[in-house]
């Protein structure tokens, strides 16, 4: 009976659970776990943001210089005896004078300008001046003269494209130390450039030529632009849009709404998902084999590029279209069937309009993906081709050889001259702007369509 | 003395509209409906009640061949509408569904204007020759749906902007617009509040003047309130079918009694 | 009760059972009047008609029960509707009892016709029946108009009926003491008077149902009770 006296709590009185004002052990543990998890999340987002900032920062820092360009403004005397020995301004005769005829005039003009401006330099031969301006200068002056033969015999102010070294020097890419072993330019040239800048003869201005121009040869990076590649990309996107959207949407509607559920459709479904994961270079090789070697389509043409990218984009379009078709509530289908609409009327009158925003978004994302794709273009020859001219006409736009923006960037980044490296970054900025525009269009379209709900 | 007999129990006097004989439905291997025989009268509200999964909705969907859209569903037996077998290979389900309208559990107006919601059915079936006729159909249907007064000033506002009860009445008006002969309703009030439910029930009672209405409901009280005849389904069988008052006051099958008194679910 | 239900069928159902009650009330009133009249003028055909009418009343009561059960099962009435349905049920039972008493009156009339009449008795009974019939009329009116005041008046008037019965009771007692040959007739007449008094009680009950229907509460037991015959002794000391 000893335990009867011990203070055991009686079974009928339930134990008190403790106050609500004091958190118990388990609650505390749970709360800390929750806080810890939130901290992980914030850290993860922070890391992501950091990477994004670093990436964008380096793109902008490296790419922005490509949008400015050094120019040297000098008076050049267009000597009549050299340019038009017959003196009759006959265009046929004028054309006979090649850029080699213009080169000495420019060299002399620059030298005279340097001397007239009182720039002190030990360089005294006209040939030494070549290092200052772009090798494209004679061609530019020549085309000016051919356009306007009246200029012959006069002295005109010409804005010459600065040589890439001079350009680099003004942007800080090229320094006196870095040119120690450079054969193309000497410290003496840089002295001239310094004084020219002081006198206002050499200047950095916004580089429209980079955005509108064509690619240039390896030795003239100052002349290279991304404009023609942009046109190439544009035509490719037209092909992709015209093919991937209707084919993709039709395929998904059939699979989602009409196809019976059996092993064959299952197989197709699995394979579409697989296709989306196939490396893009595989599509490139397929394009090479089928479109160029078998079908005989022209190499390097945006049409072929577009076809290849269509193959690559189709799975994305199909998957996103099917997802947005699935997202349309079944009640809408039932409602339409319930009032006696046929299956096709149901799909086209009700399901498709509701799925349109999703389809559009998916398609634009697919397009953006295709726009940035390089690997398949390698194999069909859209890389390495130096496009110097805009295509003349729409048919030529599809069929004549061209490059594409990412291919152009890839091409530039492989070239030796560091000036090209800068242009590659600049090209990336243009490409990103393009993608951003497309995404904004996607968002706007989606918003507009969604308002109909 | 019979003038006092106002309470509706005037069943058994109407023509048979829909008749089912030995109907079996299989979902894959699952035998969902077993041997159902039922005669649904014209100008009568017939309620299907029963616990969840008893097959009442499945059977309802057989009547306008909505089950056709489900690949694994297989239907045997015969269902006739005005003595024509609706499962005859010559019958086009689209045509059938114009005659047998359906209203669903969740109000599902199209995301279009109120006007277009109603006009859609008549348009695809070519019921209106011109705009004036279509306007007339829309007004008539909305009036039958007992919602005209509430929406007549905003016919071009989106149908999805209405309240739940209004949406459901809009859906009923939409079903009525194609001039069906039978109206199937699959738990039409389960997403509605009591007042909206009462309004829809009142509407169903009015629709009885013109249509044969079949309503599936998991609310026994609703079946009691709106229907003249009630069918009790249990585990895929039609256990009892009879006059609603009789089913609810004196059911003949012990399973029915257990169900309506809340002893089996 | 002025507002309509959203479901008009519910209104129709409620109106239907109440209409049955009114029909029943009309029949029972007619029975009371006719049975008393038959007693006074010794009209056996009229008495027979009263007995036949009772079958209709019984049928109606059965129908009311059936419809009320249906209504409860199908409509699940609440609040005022529930009180309406419950009172319908009780009033119909009260009316049916009244009908039975009237039938019993008619039966006894058929016997009394062949006996020597008791002077003045049938006149008094008819007056009493008349009073009960008027009470019933008012009670049913108060039901239709949902008039609790009128119902309360009806309730109070039951005292008059009780007093009439007291008077008759003493009268019959006197007749029987005077001449034992009167006993059979007087016993019958006494039962008739007692039955009419019971009808009065049923009418009072109807009035109470009306008060409950309107106010939601039953009236308290302050009703004047004038039926003191339960304490009667041969000495006439009441």
User: What's the rounded overall pLDDT mean of chain C?
Assistant: 88
Strand count, sense and barrel status of the largest sheet of chain B are: 6 strands, mixed
Question: How helical, in percent, are the residues of chain C?
Answer: over 70%
Instruction: Provide the CATH architecture of chain C.
Output: Up-down Bundle
Report the total helices of chain B.
10
Number of domains of chain C: 1
**Principal-axis shape of chain B:** globular
Taking the sheet with the most strands of chain C, its summary is:
none
Using only C-alpha atoms, the radius of gyration of chain C works out to 19 Å
The CATH class name of the domain at 19-107 and 181-260 in chain B reads Alpha Beta
Low-confidence stretches of chain C: none
Q: Could you tell me the CATH topology label of the domain at 19-107 and 181-260 in chain B.
A: Rossmann fold
Largest interface, counted with CB-CB under 8 A?
A-B, 21 and 27 residues
CATH level-1 class of chain C: Mainly Alpha
SSE succession of chain B = EEEHEEHEHHHHEHEHEEHH
CATH architecture call of the domain at 19-107 and 181-260 in chain B: 3-Layer(aba) Sandwich
Short description:
Chain A has 453 residues and is mainly alpha-helical. Chain A has helices at residues 2-5, 25-63, 80-83, 91-96, 99-116, 137-147, 164-171, 187-199, 208-212, 227-258, 263-276, 280-294, 302-327, 330-338, 343-371, 375-379, 394-399, 405-414, 418-450, and strands at 68-77, 155-161, 202-206. Chain A has two domains: 68-206, no CATH class; 227-450, Orthogonal Bundle (MetI-like fold), CATH 1.10.3720.10.
Task: Explain the layout of strands and helices.
The complex is a heterotrimer of chains A (453), B (265) and C (238).
Chain A: H1 2-5, H2 25-63, E1 68-77, H3 80-83, H4 91-96, H5 99-116, H6 137-147, E2 155-161, H7 164-171, H8 187-199, E3 202-206, H9 208-212, H10 227-258, H11 263-276, H12 280-294, H13 302-327, H14 330-338, H15 343-371, H16 375-379, H17 394-399, H18 405-414, H19 418-450
Antiparallel strand pairs in A: 1-2, 1-3
Helix pairs in contact in A: 2-19, 5-6, 10-13, 10-15, 11-13, 12-13, 13-15, 14-15, 15-19, 18-19
Chain B: E1 16-27, E2 30-41, E3 45-49, H1 56-63, E4 73-81, E5 84-85, H2 93-99, E6 100-103, H3 114-125, H4 131-144, H5 148-151, H6 164-177, E7 182-186, H7 194-207, E8 212-216, H8 220-226, E9 229-234, E10 237-243, H9 244-249, H10 254-260
Parallel strand pairs in B: 3-8, 3-9, 6-7, 7-8
Antiparallel strand pairs in B: 1-2, 1-4, 4-5, 9-10
Helix pairs in contact in B: 3-4, 3-6, 4-6, 6-7
Chain C: H1 8-41, H2 44-75, H3 79-112, H4 121-145, H5 148-178, H6 183-215
Helix pairs in contact in C: 1-2, 1-3, 1-4, 2-3, 3-6, 4-5, 4-6, 5-6
